[in-house]
Amino acid sequence: MLNIAVLVSGGGTNLQALINAQDRGEIPDGRITLVVSSNPGAYALQRAEKANIPTTVLRRRTFARQEDYDTALLQVLDQNHTSLIILAGFMTIISEQVIRAYRNRIINIHPSLIPSFCGEGFYGLHVHEAALARGVKVTGATVHFVNEICDGGPIILQKAVAVQSGDTPEILQRRVMEQVEWKLLPKAAALFCAGRLHVTNGVVTIDEEAEA
């Protein structure tokens, strides 16, 4: 059973999706044992507490240097015996030091089909605004491992969502979350914890032979 730490900053809808999946037995080889928030007022903390998951708040601005913040974060993760880190709307920079310590053990979900509408500046509603402005007919979400390049890590899972006439960024955001994000993120966590994800030369393969 692997320990999962979920890093959050806001409302925690993706955290809730993970908690719900765990409660349904869909992540049988892992469990969420820690939620770390960069924001003491994040509603995600209430979601964690309701699910009896321990929480910690680490605010970047309370540390003089990035290195000090990194050390504190790594210490918390190590004390929790963390095997997998899931970024669920985490708005604080993940440094190279943390990435090196957890190489191919940090996953993130991005609300587009990478490599479209990703990288610096593409987060939250900005992604959906850009998709609608470009006039794409299909968007979606991508779960990927985190590396030193923003949204540049190896892709684990992707799924498309149709853009509909009359969509606003808010409507499209909600559809992507409901149809894709809340399903793909728990699935990726389950695959990781089952030892079914392998990264070779920057490409992820999924071990289908281990599937029950």
UniProtKB/TrEMBL annotation:
Coiled coil regions in record: none
Residues in Formyl transferase N-terminal domain copies: 3-187
GO BP annotations listed: 'de novo' IMP biosynthetic process
Pathway in which this enzyme or protein is active: Purine metabolism; IMP biosynthesis via de novo pathway; N(2)-formyl-N(1)-(5-phospho-D-ribosyl)glycinamide from N(1)-(5-phospho-D-ribosyl)glycinamide (10-formyl THF route): step 1/1
Enzyme class, spelled out: transferase
Catalytic activity: N(1)-(5-phospho-beta-D-ribosyl)glycinamide + (6R)-10-formyltetrahydrofolate = N(2)-formyl-N(1)-(5-phospho-beta-D-ribosyl)glycinamide + (6S)-5,6,7,8-tetrahydrofolate + H(+)
Annotated binding of (6R)-10-formyltetrahydrofolate, by residue: 65, 108
E.C. number: 2.1.2.2
Record-marked site positions (Raises pKa of active site His): 151
Binding site for N(1)-(5-phospho-beta-D-ribosyl)glycinamide: 12-14
Pfam families given in the database record: Formyl_trans_N
Cross-referenced CDD domains: FMT_core_GART
SUPFAM superfamilies, sorted: Formyltransferase (SSF53328)
Protein role: Catalyzes the transfer of a formyl group from 10-formyltetrahydrofolate to 5-phospho-ribosyl-glycinamide (GAR), producing 5-phospho-ribosyl-N-formylglycinamide (FGAR) and tetrahydrofolate.
HAMAP family named in the record: PurN (MF_01930)
Family note: Belongs to the GART family.
Name recorded for this polypeptide: Phosphoribosylglycinamide formyltransferase
Organism (species): Caproicibacterium lactatifermentans
Gene name for this UniProt entry: purN
